[in-house]
């Protein structure tokens, strides 16, 4: 169960970082 939460957190971080990079590129 703990492993699942860690995976979800990691995926969320990747999505957030990708969003920030996309916003920077769109400037």
Give the SSE layout.
Layout: H1 2-26
Structural commentary:
By secondary structure, the protein is mostly helical. Helices cover 93% and strands 0% of the residues. The longest helix is centred in the middle third of the chain and has 25 residues, at 2-26. The radius of gyration is 12 Å and the shape is rod-shaped. The model has no long low-confidence stretch (mean pLDDT 95).
Q: Report low-confidence residues grouped into runs of 5 or more.
A: none
The number of helices is 1
Strand content: under 5%
Order of helices and strands: H
Q: N-to-C terminal Cα separation, in Å?
A: 40 Å
Mean pLDDT value: 95
Q: Using the alpha-carbon principal axes, give the shape.
A: rod-shaped
Radius of gyration, rounded? 12 Å
The helix fraction, in percent, is over 70%
Number of strands: 0
- Secondary structure class reads mainly alpha
The biggest beta sheet reads:
none
List keywords for this structure.
single chain; 27 residues; mainly alpha; rod-shaped
Summarize, please.
This protein has 27 residues and is mainly α. 93% of the residues lie in helices and 0% in strands.
């Amino acid at each position: 169960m703990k492993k699942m939460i860690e995976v979800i957190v990691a995926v969320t971080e990747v999505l957030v970082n990708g969003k920030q990079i996309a916003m920077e590129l769109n400037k």
